[in-house]
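Appendix B. Chain record.
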Amino acid sequence: MLRPAARLAGIHAAGQFRAFLRAHQRTAEVQDRLLSELLRHHADTAFGEDHGFAAVRSYKDFVAAVPVGDYETHRPYVNRVLHGETAAMLPPGEKVLMFSRTSGTTGEPKHIPVTSRFLSEMRRGWNIWGLAALNDHKDAWLRAILQISSPMREIDSPSGRPCGAISGLLAATQKSIVRRMYVLPPAAAEIADPQAKNYVTLRCAVARDVAFITTANPSSTIKLIETGQAHAERLIRDVADGTVNPPGEFSPKAAAAFHFKRQPALARRLEEGIRRDGRLLPRHFWRLSYLANWTGGTLRLYLRRLGELFGPLPVRDIGLLASEGRFSVPLGDGTAAGVAEITGNFLEFIPAEHAEQANPPTVRAHEVQVGREYSLVITNWAGLWRYNMDDRVRVTGRLGQSPVFEFLSRGAHTASITGEKITEYQVVEAMRRAAAAASAQVERFVLQGRFASTPFYELRIELPATLPAEKLTRLMDEELAGLNVEYRSKRAGGRLGPIRPVILAAGTLEQAERREIALRGGRGEQYKHKYLLTDVLE
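Structure tokens predicted for this chain:
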């Protein structure tokens, strides 16, 4: 019964996909038209009037009228919208559906207005990404989807609008045919206790023919399976009895939203799988086609663990997307690089060497050079203008006239004690190579400079007793020298000492992450572990 509706939805998505590909053959023209449309629609907003949009006739005029800014530049206008004055940022009559809420660099949360037009652009980007993925994995068509997301309403704005995760709104407003393939009811996103949420998520999904799992952070997928492994007996009992009894906090009111049938045959299959393999594994209950999550920058460290749990399963990066919008669309497996999303965002790029300047020079999407690194600047339907995302990207190729780029790191994640300027990306890559050489599994660590008579970097890490810390740090030191010529020079010249390990008790870094998430009011799937701290210890 789903096939006719799915066919129509597929035809619509295929049309969007073809239009998207055509747009990249005339990138400058598409971007010029989009900028003109954005300026015209927002000319009567407070931001538009303050920056003279009515007089802007060209990109040169635009650059002169609006300096490169960030969230703090927009915060006064966002605060007015939060209190109901939508015309501060949005065209007259434009309604705010919600505010996408995420942690800010200052510790005060960011709130991005989500309108129907902004939501439509986000959904179209997902449609393009999804169709490309399904074209490559046709066995996933019309099968169940496990999407791990957060609620769209965590708090209310002063004007009464929901503030939370835009992924929750996207799920709630998805086409009915797609919603029918979701394995999680909306109530699953509302579970506050992380352990209970992971368990209930797996309990809901274990009995379904899940084709792929999609979430932002791969650690969410890993935690899901590890929770099942830690509570395998409980899970098998619940499957057999048609119940749900998660560890952690789970109220009777929450439990009332979930209903299950007794499945003794499935319970026996799980038991047999554990007896055979010694632990619960996804292949005991799913025949997955692929995984979908971020794979770039620091998150590549998790790929090895995904491989241990899921085997040689393709991983599809979901692209560079954030509360502020979607900015790239990967069109293949096994790469973090995606083509620039030029149809819903006006994109500019700050050359890496100018990233720290006030109001730095920018180049446009069709002007970037392959192989170079940039910081991304966006203008879009959220009312954001020349907004520096502070995301460092590397251009790896082109599709037509548009760049294909991969996320490397947050721009501010650069450390230097003696002028070496190591980046978080280099640190994570050095650890990945060192861990592979040492046959070690490393997911979390922290590297931080320490001032001494001979300064050095301190590596805080949790390691099993069987792995000598000195070996791992020596390998990492060598790999980092290979990745950063200035680091190699400082080490060779004796201005920097070798990396020194500090062994932490198991669970220390995870507990620290939980404290920071609670302190900042964020969500676990949004949290990006900081592998490199830029302040220097004394």
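Further analysis of this model is presented in Appendix C.
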